[in-house]
């Protein structure tokens, strides 16, 4: 049985770098949400804090939503680049 040769362009390293960086940044953002839960006393499984229950609800909700916002920005940017 013949071996399969995989040829990747040398620029493919940039793709791998971006993928690793994105994974690490998502882990960092998840850690920030965990820290914000402790700081603003928002227990699991509560997704969003209510202003009637927590005076820092708006700050926590901003931290909570940022990873989703960041991911949607990246996805929309990639979609626009692919259809350019």
From TrEMBL:
Q: Does the keyword Repressor apply?
A: no
Transmembrane intervals: 12-31
Instruction: Give the keywords, sorted.
Output: Membrane, Transmembrane, Transmembrane helix
One GO cellular component this record assigns the protein to is:
endoplasmic reticulum
Query: A GO molecular function for this record?
Result: glutathione transferase activity
Q: Does the keyword Membrane belong to this entry? A: yes
- Identification of the protein by name: Microsomal glutathione s-transferase 3
Write the gene name. Answer: Mgst3
